[in-house]
Design a protein that fits this description.
314 residues; three-stranded antiparallel β-sheet; 21% strand
Length: 314
């Protein structure tokens, strides 16, 4: 083949390759959206998109007045992008959203999820060990959280997919029977494809109620089959901590970071280690002199399979 023929062939091959890749990508998107059925994870876990757990969307923040955010980028790990509008969300908001997703897995997204206030509050661990102490304040709290989650607008990008919409599409409450109907957007299924979501151990998360940073760390590291070291500053940013926000100089910021490490991060890691041990799961950590937080934990069965697949490819 002469040079002219060769040069004419290469562009056609390049275009064909590009078209093939685009076709595969498009079919993948169509498959992701065709069936709005969430994966059927078992009762003891909660399914959550990795991008959510690897970000400050549901932050480790203190109770109190919520700052309203309008189309602000949320701190995320590389490979994830979240643009958010709405009141700041915390770990208790995540409990409710996880509970709604947990209920939705038994029906297709977009269909009605029905539950009573008491039943749902028990599902997310409210009202004491057996859920027998649910009172008016718990019911009012749930109503506020559902309203808050419905008032959100998120753009979550992980992998080839972007979900844009509310965390809860809509809800209806019968004030006589205290029954709810909740609907989640079927397009949210794009965030639950293989390897794009994590099954979070609910027993451990529930045992950490009252320790929002420990809960955030549990979710974050649950997305890692083999955790890599992270800087203290990186974890501070990703968890959405408001500590040190008023610091104006480098010296003040450094002092605030050391205070957060000693007063918040280390106690949270200790709490997570203790609760994990009680649940029969290995979780170890250390902070090196270089400021890197190193974690070692037991991967789940699916994560072990993922690691074996990576080893086989190498």
């Amino acid at each position: 083949m002469d040079a002219a023929a060769t040069s004419a062939t290469w562009p056609r091959q390049a275009f064909a390759s590009t078209d093939l890749i685009e076709g595969v990508r498009q079919r993948s998107i169509e498959r992701a959206l065709a069936d709005p059925q969430l994966p059927l994870w078992p009762e003891p876990v909660r399914g959550v998109p990795n991008g959510v757990l690897r970000s400050a969307l549901f932050g480790a923040i203190k109770r109190g007045k919520r700052r309203f955010i309008e189309r602000e980028p949320i701190a995320c790990l590389k490979g994830v992008s979240i643009i958010y509008t709405g009141p700041r969300l915390d770990q208790s908001d995540l409990d409710v959203w996880e509970g709604a997703l947990h209920q939705a897995r038994t029906v297709k997204l977009g269909n009605r999820i029905e539950f009573t206030e008491k039943g749902f509050l028990r599902l997310i661990g409210r009202g004491g060990p057996r859920g027998n102490n649910i009172g008016k304040s718990d019911r009012e709290w749930l109503r506020k959280v559902l309203a808050r989650l419905t008032a959100t607008a998120v753009e979550v990008t992980q992998g080839p997919y972007t979900y844009g919409g509310s965390l809860i599409d809509e809800y209806f409450r019968d004030n006589t029977s205290s029954r709810y109907v909740v609907i989640l957007n079927p397009r949210m299924k794009a965030l639950f494809n293989r390897d794009s979501y994590t099954r979070v151990n609910w027993g451990i998360r529930h045992a950490l109620i009252g320790h929002p940073l420990a809960q955030w760390l549990h979710g974050f590291y649950s997305t890692h089959a083999a955790p890599i070291p992270y800087k203290v500053e990186t974890l501070h940013r990703l968890c959405g901590s408001e500590s040190g926000e008023r610091a104006k100089t480098d010296a003040e910021r450094h002092k605030a970071m050391l205070g957060w490490r000693d007063d918040s991060l280390i106690p949270a890691l200790c709490a997570l280690k203790n609760v994990s041990s009680q649940a029969g799961q290995h979780f170890a950590w250390e902070i090196g002199g270089d400021g890197l937080v190193c974690v070692n934990r037991d991967p789940t069965a699916s994560q072990q399979k993922h690691l074996r697949g990576k080893t086989a490819r190498w």
